[in-house]
Amino acid sequence: METMDRELITEKKRIHDCFKQGFQTYDQHACIQKLVANKLVAHLSKSPMFITTLLEIGAGSGILTESFLCKHMVGEYRINDIVTQCYSRLSEITRFHNVPVTTNCMGDVEQITLPLQNSVILSSSVFQWIHNLPLLIERLAATQKSKDIFAFSLYTRGTYQEFQQTTGTGLPYHTGEEVSEMVAPYYDIIDYSTEKHTLFFDRPRDVLLHMKQTGVNGVGITWSKSQHLNFLKNYPAVSDQYQLTYTPSYYILKRK
User: What is the pTM of this model?
Assistant: First the structure.
């Protein structure tokens, strides 16, 4: 058990360090993440609403924060991210949108004490990184009352399939059906959808650069020079281009 705990701590630190390193380039290169965040907001924005308390998990550089606050008013915005240095930029976004209270809930969401009475919980492009997603969902459900909203997107099976097929490693992405089963004891599913997006690159090294610039080099790979060269040689080409697939799924849930 102690060995597993040490391995988990090491992996969490790697994820933290990679996203911290990619923080300055994230917005410029996170085209899919922006698309996914905006689509999640669109699912919620059929009519503007005032939200008393909102908890955003994995707010990062503020892509979802900005998109959401352009559509809705929030009384207290509770901000979480594993990279604590994000808080300064995120609080600037909430101040710009005249949010009365911005609360610092930074840190590993699987370890921190969660704030209570969250009328809305929001997250985009984060939950594929969570070690124990069923437990986190149970803990989040305990902070909400009946009819409160939980809206999130995450990347599901099929994401980075080209990378995983080439390297034999990567995140163990859940299927959409698995996630639906996780939320079912606590939430009614109001809306669910999944889709596929494919990016195209001129060279395999551009695939790796894209992953690094969006902080996603935290997949636990340490390569030798020969392994790196093998990746460049073996990454599959389609019509002289190199693909990288994202498979996001969207959930709009209501607390039972």
Answer: 0.88
| Greatest extent of the chain over all pairs of C-alpha atoms, in Å | 55
CATH number, residue 139:
3.40.50.150
> What is the token pair recorded at 103?
């609360």
Helix axis angle for 204-213 and 225-234, nearest 10°, is: 110
Rounded Cα gap, residues 72 and 66, in angstroms:
10
Nearest to 155 by CA among 211, 197, 217: 197
CB 152 within 8 A of CB 251: yes
Per the CB < 8 A criterion, the answer to whether 209 and 140 are in contact is no
CA 177/CA 34 separation, integer angstroms: 24
pLDDT digits (tens, 9 = 90+) for 134-189: 999 999 999 999 999 999 999 999 999 999 999 888 888 999 999 999 999 999 99
**Using CA atoms, how far apart are residues 102 and 77, in angstroms rounded to an integer?**
5
Copy the structure tokens of residue 38: 């905006």
Q: Please name the residue that has the structure tokens 């190199």.
A: 242
Segments forming the whole domain that contains residue 179: 2-255
Q: How many domains does the chain have?
A: 1
Write the CA distances from 125 to 75, 107, 137, 240, integer angstroms.
24, 17, 15, 29
Query: Which residues are 102's β-sheet partners?
Result: 77
189 token code pair: 């599913």
Give dist(CA 138, CA 152) in Å, integer. Answer: 15
| Non-local CB neighbours of 147 within 8 Å, separated by 6+ positions | 254, 255
Q: How far apart are CA 148 and CA 146, in angstroms?
A: 6
What is the distance between the alpha carbons of residues 71 and 86, in angstroms, rounded to a whole number? 22
Tokens 């299927």 sit on residue: 175
